[in-house]
Amino acid sequence: SSKKGKYVSEFSSLSFVGLNLAKMSLTVIYSITVIVFLSQPIFASKVTQPEKRTVVKCTDKCYVKYFAGGFVPTGLEISNPLVMSCICQTDATGNDCFATYFDNDAGIAAYSAYTIQASDAKLIGTSKRPQVSWKTTPGITKQGTDALYAGSSAYKIDKGHMNPSHINSYDQNHQIATFKYTNAVPQFAGHNRNSWKKYEGKIADYVKTVCGPKGGNMHLITGTSNYLLDTATGKQLIGKIELFPPSDPNGIVRPNSLWTAGCCVVPAISAESIAVWGNNVNTNPSTVSLSLPDLEKLLVTSSSSPANLFPAFPGCRTNVIPI
To answer: Which of 2, 124, 158, 296 is 20 to 30 Å from the Cα of 133, by its Cα?
Structure first.
């Protein structure tokens, strides 16, 4: 009996030791497994996508597709083509939204080009203006910044959209894409918030209620000019080039005028145009509707041939719609 108890006791001890050894083995195996697992890249299969370039060749599809027929304007007064950049403006996800032709010497756009498809026109006004911060464009060294515009209210200056947020209100991502400093110019608040805003609304209404419903795609270009318009005579005036902030050698140019031209193209059927001009001045700013041919004459010196904003569609010049 005592021997039997002794054997039972020894067996129990051995079992206890064996059990502990087994637990230790499992612990070691588990630890090794965890270490090996954690040493491997958890997202090894994920491929990092390169950041999409915004400054591109002026022949790139993401740029030229925003011009009617894929043809950019011709005959505009560009002081030095070597300092110009072509920008594919994108939304936060990298999708193309519009194009900007940018003057690196002036620090502002010569123009932005944008297209409203017939299918999107009916949705204009369905998206609220986004409350977002303005962004700078990579690859552009001289442009507007938060710091540059920090004291703008003292000069009664706004960040004036080229491609407006409102006409893109069929899709909020497109609206957000317009809040780029390369798509903005120093614009007097009295102009931006009154007559210019009024005509931005008229253009959007035309696209939504006239161009879109008849199946037209609206090709728009909003640009800047150093000329002014004598609204009483219709004649061109030479304006003085001024910087913003004033007297700041590192400032950007405040354009004397802004303009918008649009061509509604109904595929294989028709093309018609609208155009507006706005004097960007502090005293008595004004915006007027005019014909596309008259606008194209104002964009160059009186001795030069007119610019051609929509070279692919001659009908844009002949079929003029007042707004």
So the answer is: 124
